[in-house]
């Protein structure tokens, strides 16, 4: 018999389920029983566990091989549930909740006592979001408790935007994956710490800083550290700045790799792909929204095909471009070309 202890995760058979009412109910019961369930959200697939069950939360860290100093975001199904897991809701938070929830925005509050230390890495705060995905909302509602929602991948892999990605990473480790098709946005939520005034943006994501400032005025932006943490692709990632000579610069970097016997792939907008000639290039789509939507899946593909380097086209910092830049600086470990 397999023993479940702090460093062993028991092997189970993983079922990928169609998200009909019966299966959502099965998954909600599994959450209530302390099991882990992966499910779709509009940002990326989440690995859910009941946020009030410290052992279930501990199992999330084990399954993901996530460092214990990284707290987990908690999702609730509707706005009125937020007050149950936080101490107070500041006025600016109320404005952001009205405007952007459900959606790709996470707010950090003082936590209520029902949220265990296991969720918050021992800090007195809790990060809260309402996914804008009907399957996720129904599942959380039926489970009867808030649910932790880290991305449903192991710490060494890109966030999953398809049920298949989840299966590739977590198959054999969790009972159920609800298959809701492709995640719409494809990058994670924006995180704002609303406990200070001005509030602090801790991570740029699906909602842009400009959209937030339009509602509540100036915010501080905490630059994410580029230290090597979280998902690191096997390939070296180079991220280009956005300027007139970008295409030529990317071409010469690519050619340098090839000259030294290495393989590289350029990832770019569709409209630029012909400029790279016969070099290997993958299209990310026609817009920055599509770039964000496809980024993680394309990085997974590049890793699976064992490229030595991925050279990512630069984007201008408007709209979601800003969040893309933050994500790519981190992924490249600051290797900007
Ligand atoms: P991930 O689950 O990998 O998308 O990461 C969740 C992010 O939310 C991490 O960057 C955490 O540091 C942040 N986060 C989660 N909970 C809190 C919290 N209570 N206070 C501040 N940041 C948080
Ligand atoms: Mg993640």
Structure, described:
With 337 residues, this protein is an alpha/beta fold. The protein contains ten helices and 15 strands. An eleven-stranded mixed β-sheet has the order 1-8-2-3-7-4-6-5-9-10-11, sandwiched between helices. The longest helix has 17 residues, at 288-304. It is globular. The relative contact order is 0.15. The structure holds adenosine monophosphate and magnesium ion. Residues 151, 159 line the site of magnesium ion.
- Helices and strands, in order, run as EHEEHEHEHEHEHEEEHEEHEEHEH
- Helix share of residues? 25-40%
Total helix count?
A: 10
**SS-based class:** alpha/beta
The order of strands across the largest sheet is 1-8-2-3-7-4-6-5-9-10-11
- How would a textbook summarize the main sheet? 11 strands, mixed
Low-confidence stretches: 1-7
Taking all Cα atoms into account, the compactness measure Rg is 20 Å
Report the sheet-strand fraction.
Answer: 15-25%
The coarse overall form would be globular
- Secondary structure tally: strands: 15
* Measured distance between first and last alpha carbons: 52 Å
Instruction: Give the overall average pLDDT.
Output: 92
Can you list the ligands bound to this structure? adenosine monophosphate, magnesium ion
What is the compact description of this entry?
With 337 residues, the chain is of the alpha/beta class.
């Amino acid at each position: 018999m397999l023993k479940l202890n702090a460093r062993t995760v028991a092997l189970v058979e993983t079922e990928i389920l169609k998200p009909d009412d019966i299966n959502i109910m099965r998954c909600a019961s599994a959450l209530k029983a302390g099991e882990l369930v992966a499910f779709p959200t509009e940002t990326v697939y989440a690995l859910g566990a009941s946020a009030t069950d410290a052992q279930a939360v501990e199992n999330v860290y084990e399954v993901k091989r996530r460092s214990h100093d990284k707290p987990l975001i908690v999702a609730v199904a509707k706005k009125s549930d937020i007050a149950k897991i936080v101490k107070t809701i500041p006025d600016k938070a109320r404005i952001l909740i009205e405007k952007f929830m459900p959606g790709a925005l996470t707010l950090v509050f003082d936590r209520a006592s029902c949220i265990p230390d296991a969720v918050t890495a021992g800090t007195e705060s809790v990060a809260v979001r309402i996914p804008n995905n009907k399957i996720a909302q129904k599942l959380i509602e039926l489970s009867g408790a808030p649910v932790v929602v880290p991305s449903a991948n192991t710490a060494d892999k890109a966030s999953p935007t398809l049920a298949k990605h989840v299966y590739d990473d977590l198959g054999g480790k969790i009972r159920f994956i609800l298959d809701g098709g492709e995640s719409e946005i494809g990058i994670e939520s924006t995180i704002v710490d609303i406990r200070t005034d001005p509030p602090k943006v801790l991570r740029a994501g699906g909602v842009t800083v400009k959209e937030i400032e339009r509602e509540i005025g100036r915010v501080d932006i905490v630059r994410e550290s580029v230290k090597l943490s979280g998902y690191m692709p096997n390939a070296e990632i180079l991220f280009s700045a956005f300027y007139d000579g970008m295409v030529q610069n990317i071409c010469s970097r690519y050619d340098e790799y090839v000259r030294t016997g290495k393989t590289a792939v350029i990832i770019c907008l569709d409209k630029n792909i012909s400029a790279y000639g016969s070099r290997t290039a993958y299209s990310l789509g026609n817009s920055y929204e599509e770039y964000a939507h496809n980024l993680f899946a394309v990085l997974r593909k590049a890793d699976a095909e064992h490229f030595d380097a991925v050279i990512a086209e630069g984007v201008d910092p408007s709209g979601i471009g800003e969040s893309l830049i933050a994500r790519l600086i981190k992924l490249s470990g600051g290797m900007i070309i």
